[in-house]
Records
---
Amino acid sequence: MSTPIKSASSLLLNARLVSPKLLSPVENKICYTSTPKRVPRQSLNFSHDFQAHNPVKNPIQIKVTQENLAEDSLIIDSPHKSELLTYGLNKYDLLYILGKGSFGTVIKGNYHGKIVAVKLIKSKSGFVNESNALNLRHENIITVFDIIVSRKYSLVMMEYHEDSKNLQSVIDDASAVLDRKTVVRFSKDVASGLKHCHENGVLHLDIKPKNILLCDNKVCKICDFGNSVKASKATEMCTFQGTVPYTAPEILRGKLPSTKSDIYSLGILIWQMIYRKSPYEFSNSEVIIYKVVKFNFRPPLDSKDEVLARLCCLCWDESSNKRPSAAQICDLLNGVVFNEK
């Protein structure tokens, strides 16, 4: 989940000082009705996010009710669904919180007899981009089962994994193994998930370690489609934003995003797995935007791994047309794995 440090308008105003070609931010409008309904929406959140925030697993066990199939999960079906949509989490004192962020809180729940991860979001925060993932079914993408929208709160029912962790927490854990073979495997997982997204007309636009979930079977899955957009609607006037260090330069210049914008983010992510540190030493968002846009600045590379270093360079090429597709990256990484056998 993104954690905005500034409003989009403020950050893009500074970005426009770097490049006068940047478009003026245009806020999307959406009307919610009092009756819960499923509504698609295009909206993105710009943030600068370096710090690792591991998923919070904090069961608050104050009372146990017979309604729960598991003592640490909340049944989402009525009347709980209506109460959640109206009051949020205020009425509940037995919850298993999986994570928190600017977009909302993720809890462990039970929906139609199935244990799920439930993202509860204040509707005004503009989340419904998650609906872009509703039809995506792939082993490297967290499945979104259902989305329910109301005037105050909205619910996103997602695939749940008991012992999962985000990739950022793995990068930050000195005891976690991130050797070359593991980096290649994780990179291939993300590229494969992106390939499926792009083949189905979805741009994620916020690929970063915190939005990659490492599941108990050691498979990486792309999650959090709160910043996603349908490729067919990327021509509409709206503010395309993401997390600054991972955002492609064409977006920073105010141009429309494409599948290659996700590839740029993937290149930064691969670099971060190799070097296990923040991609930029300076943490100021405006400085990063200035250097990336004006000087084509990228994270430093050495000869640590020639093949992966070359892949990073291809992914974050200044020209989006020169960046490989997700399918091409999968083919390249399959070759690397084959050669290591």
Note: The chain has a mean pLDDT of 75.
---
Amino acid sequence: MPRSPTRPTRPPGQPTGPAVAAAGPGRTRAGRLGPPGARYGQARCPVSELPPRSRGVIALVEDSCTSCMLCARECPSWCIHIDSHGVTEVPPEGGRARTTAVLDRFAIDWSLCMYCGICVEVCPFDALEWAPAHAYGESDAGALLHERERLGDWLG
């Protein structure tokens, strides 16, 4: 019975069925899929070996953030949490009082983030940028909520 034209066929000489299943563990043990015994977070790739367009992790430049909330509003996964309060400054020579926002809390929940980079692109003050770090996994999902102090540490 001829095969259906939509069903893919294997090239001649390529193993099929049980031979494919038996070859899988052997490839892993031989180290072709990574060093044997390496677990996530233990074997790290040096930053110099990262591809030039790799994104890594989003870092916060706290001095540049004005609490404008553009990043939180544009985030499709709603993983950015910002709290701020206004401080009114009155000039000593009279004039008009000016209110500025002071950043109280800036946090990113990495369990929700999909690394699209929209927050980095929409920030008019360049307060968010990609840092080359990539191994920041946690064993507890609650620890994936990084506050502003930890987000600033990714830069250096």
Note: The radius of gyration is 25 Å.
---
Amino acid sequence: MDLTPQQLLQGLRNTSQQGLQAEGIDILRHLLIATREDPKQLGREWEEVYNYALAFADEDAALGVAERLMEVFPNNAKHVFSLAERLSRLGRSEHALEIMRRLEKAAPANPAIDYFLGVYSGQVGELDDANSYFRRALDKKADFGDAWSLLASSGGLSDQDETLLTRLVEAGEGHAMPGTAYALGSLLHGQGRYDDAWAAWEKANQFERARRPFNREGELTAHRAIREADEKIPLSSEASEFPNPLPRSIFVVGLPRSGTSLTEQIIAQQKNVCPLGEAMISRVATWPLGNLSEQSLIGAGVMGPQATELWDKIGGVYRFCAGSRTKGQSHVTDKGALLHLFLGALARGMKEAKFVWVRRDPRDLALSAWRAYFGDGKRWRNELSDMAAYIAAHDELMTYWKSRFPKRIHEVQYEKLVNDPQTETNRLMDFLALPRLDMASTDFSSASVGTASFAQIRSKISPASVGGWKNYEKFIGPASDL
């Protein structure tokens, strides 16, 4: 007997309360199918469903629910924003920009609309338009901190902005902070006023520390627990051999600001590679393993005789979700700040998968993270001592994975990549068994980049940022663990 949409919604509520994410994802898919002909059956309850999709990290279902909300409430700007964000997350920034332009024509003047027009224009490479939209947003709302931050990262600030930015930072209003402080720091950095730039960034990070404190011990304990649990998994516990599994996954693993976006865009120059960006499919596929603790792994059965069946399911879910996003390409790239946590599960579930570990001088990484505004909860980067601890935990876990899967993890050193891109790219492509690229003719101008790196990625590969931390040695140097 088919369940009604209301019954499926109740099932979602139950799975959410019980922490049964994998089952919740199945219900989400059934709910989208059941309401295909008449999405109005749930009305505003779609907003509740949308929150479940986000909580389950199911980007595909979240997009489907956002589309349902648009069908039911076509003139609701909030739902347009949600749909555009989901499209962007799935690498469809052109479509996100299109629906934002339609909203711009239909809705009253709104700085948020200008801001998102700027975001998606930047992601598709229209940098002049992006800066123009950010300026329009600021003309309407001068304390729009996020707009200031992205205007800075895309190179759109001028020296004339300093007075207003300084006043906004000193006022410390919630809407202005921390974006205005990050922007002011970038402006002062460009002028060579390094002490003043650091002071501005310190205000931004201090604001973030107070708003979103970092649970250092909790994070470090989680990293250790994943390694210790994995050590108990037999090497024979893995998926079956498949003759030609498609698409073949390339996971680009590394800390934010380490060069993962650049590395992914280089790999994406291959015509048979579809870049997925920060896809979150890894979390969807590995939900049966819970939080990857020893108790969760035992409960899932990875130590027992049914382990192969479980790994086959994890690999199958990943390939299905990834394959639905391609246009027939044989390979996909997937990157994300948390991929290092799932590497063992992904390696066992997909024996064909390969992993690219991007590393960078931790002092340059720390500077880049310190001066960048992450709005997505990367709390470790708001305090230098937290940075040092998190970077060490990340490297320790990745070193463990490399000892466990030595032939499947390739290291890319950012400094070598930007100093000698041809040699390092040759090594990378040989590891991936893909044709070598001519880096002298590589052009990233048409790339769709769904992160705040959209301006930097379109620049020519250059070692200009290598050693940039030396301008701030008096601040970074004392953090001896970096």
Note: The longest strand covers residues 248-253.
